[in-house]
Design brief:
single chain, 586 residues, alpha+beta, Double Stranded RNA Binding Domain, six-stranded antiparallel beta sheet, three-stranded antiparallel beta sheet, 22 helices, 14% strand, YcaO-like_dom
């Protein structure tokens, strides 16, 4: 068999692919290659997913088909090993009360009477970083996955790299502030760690360049000429009408980062891609393949025009958008003729062991502490790297403002609404509670509760604003019901099925008619049936009377059997739990 070695990897691509695929089969995961893209020469991307659980998927990219597949499989192990596929979901009471929720080496810290952050969590430096005013409470740090207040705060062990001490970091903080940043899997420990550290630099430097509207130096033609495969990809894009800028993003040779920007003159927009690796050529290739990961040439019209509004560019919401899909705003200043830094023909490359040491030295020079959790329970080395102050995707204040456990205490109540028979004022009190607790009307209820509902029922599109319409109907407050029904039609109907959109048009009409005392509803019944259909008229009438206000929301039992998507997620998690238990019991 041919063996293909590429820079930055400690094994041949063929060996990595065969090993990763076999390990997945051994663990009971059946993965399919769902789609491939090769929009320009030397740029490949692939989307792979679990045949039995569509929520478990990854994308891979590379200069060749094999490199892209190895990349996708590596990312799959990274996300399985770190439990990232399950980061947004409640795992149910069985797991919440099982021998362990996340890993057998987790540690639980019971809540205290005064709800302080329990002793033994975090170190002094982390406490000062996350909670400088000493306002954080223990109950704010309950993890979404277990939601188990009786058990307390779940801390995961990380090794502080400066002195190899174990520090327990709450799963809640990891999930809320770092999401997928700094996660990696690889053929060897050093290879994966170099990849994880490079990703931290990539996103940190990207945010600095965007937020500070830094002007970058172009990579000279003679340097680009060293990488003919990348040059061919860029030449093809330019021939298709997309001018390309390739920039040195190292900020004066300090960081191993490249930036490539694509212009789309057809609609005046641009898209900036960033990549990082100790090897200049690897970083450049990654940046170009990232530019087109999961995108064909016809998909390059969804970005935004550059702007002179540097304040808007620097806003945290814009940086979050760049993290999610790179569609955020970019300042025109990035492209200024006179760069803020000189071009540096940098190289941090060596063996993966040397590269790890080199990258760690950069963090040390910046006085940044690095915390690493190693995972080898699936037979492939993976890690999660946290560098407070550099790898955070969301600010620490989100622990107060947008904590993913904010809706956990409402889960049982909200899931019990279909088929409920409360007093009318109790439904209206729940609207008040949602207001008092500050829930955004646009928040999807399934995300608030950590549920995988599947797309075939009303829970999938239900937002807090639409829920308020239903609660007002159940509570008999038709004026308020009309306000929230019209809100729903304005802000949510674009994602509704035709039947649900029709129901809401009918409901709005009946609510408007209910305000017309002089009109007789029966006079309009025939016309309504012809316009909306018997089914919608009956459903809207039942909602109006308060008899069946929760249209399209199936009743949900304690085990969430009503949601096959959630059940498939739990089955996938069970495979992981078995592998963890076996590994840690050795």
């Amino acid at each position: 068999m041919t063996q293909t070695f590429i820079p930055g990897k400690d094994a041949a691509l063929e060996d990595s692919i065969a090993r990763f695929q076999q390990k997945l089969l051994d663990l009971g995961f059946h993965i399919e290659e769902a789609s491939w893209l090769n929009p320009v020469p030397n740029v490949w991307s692939v989307h792979i997913r679990d045949k039995e659980c569509a929520l478990c998927f990854t994308n891979g990219k590379g200069a060749t088909k094999k490199a892209a597949l190895a990349s996708a499989l590596g990312e799959y192990f990274e996300r399985l090993s770190t439990n990232y596929f399950f980061a947004d979901f409640w795992l149910g009471e069985t797991i919440a009360n099982g021998p362990f929720v996340h890993y057998p080496n987790e540690k639980w810290f019971p809540l205290t009477e005064n709800d302080d952050v329990p002793e033994g969590l975090l170190d002094a430096r982390l406490r000062a970083f996350y909670d400088p005013e000493n306002e954080l409470t223990g109950s704010q740090l309950i993890d979404l996955q277990s939601g188990n207040e009786a058990r307390g705060v779940c801390g995961l062990p990380f090794t502080r790299q400066s002195d190899n001490q174990t520090v327990y970091i709450p799963m809640n903080i990891i999930g809320n502030l770092y999401v997928s940043n700094g996660m990696s899997a690889g053929n060897t420990r050093n290879e994966a760690r170099v990849q994880g550290l490079s990703e931290v630099f990539e996103r940190y430097v990207k945010n600095r360049i965007i937020a500070e509207s830094i002007s970058l130096p172009e990579i000279p033609a003679e340097v680009m000429a060293r990488y003919p495969a990348v040059m061919e990809s860029i030449a093809t894009l330019e021939a298709e009408g997309f001018p390309i800028f390739a920039y040195d993003g190292s900020l004066g040779g300090k960081y191993p980062v490249i930036c490539v920007v694509l212009f789309n003159p057809a609609n005046g927009t641009c898209f900036a891609s960033f990549g990082a690796h100790p090897d200049f050529g690897v970083a450049l290739e990654r940046t170009v393949t990232e530019l087109l990961q999961g995108r064909g040439l016809k998909d390059l019209d969804v970005f935004t025009p550059p702007t002179f509004d540097d304040e808007e560019v620097a806003e945290h919401t814009n940086l979050e958008t760049h993290f999610i899909d790179s569609s955020g705003l970019i300042s025109w200043d990035l492209f200024k003729q006179d760069a803020d830094y000189p071009f540096t023909d940098w190289s941090f490359s060596g063996t993966t062991e040397e590269e790890f040491a080199t990258l760690m030295a950069i963090f040390a020079a910046e006085d940044k502490e690095v915390y690493i959790a190693d995972y080898e329970h699936l037979g492939v080395y993976a890690c999660r790297i946290i560098v407070p102050g550099m790898s955070d995707i969301y600010p620490a204040e989100d622990l107060w403002l947008a904590n993913n456990n904010m809706g956990s205490h409402l889960r049982e109540t909200l899931l019990s609404l279909p088929g409920s028979a409360w007093n009318k004022e109790d439904y209206l009190n729940l609207i008040e509670q949602l207001d008092e607790e500050g829930f955004d009307d646009f928040t999807r209820v399934r995300e608030l509760l950590g549920l995988a509902t599947g797309a075939d029922n009303g829970w999938y599109t239900l937002r807090v604003g639409e829920l308020k319409a239903m609660l007002a109907l159940a509570g008999g407050d038709l004026e308020q019901a009309l306000i929230w029904t019209e809100w729903t039609m304005e802000f949510n109907s674009s994602v509704f099925s035709p039947a649900r959109a029709n129901y809401y048009r009918c409901l709005q009409t009946l609510l408007l008619l209910s305000q017309e005392d002089a009109r007789q509803p029966l006079q309009y019944l025939n016309a309504f049936i012809k316009m909306y259909g018997t089914e919608a008229v009956e459903a809207a009438s039942a909602a109006l009377s308060g008899e069946a206000a929760f249209y399209g929301l199936p009743a949900v039992d304690h085990d969430l059997q009503a949601f096959p998507a959630h059940q498939s997620l739990l089955k996938a998690y069970d495979k992981l739990q078995r592998a963890k238990a076996a590994y840690w019991s050795k």
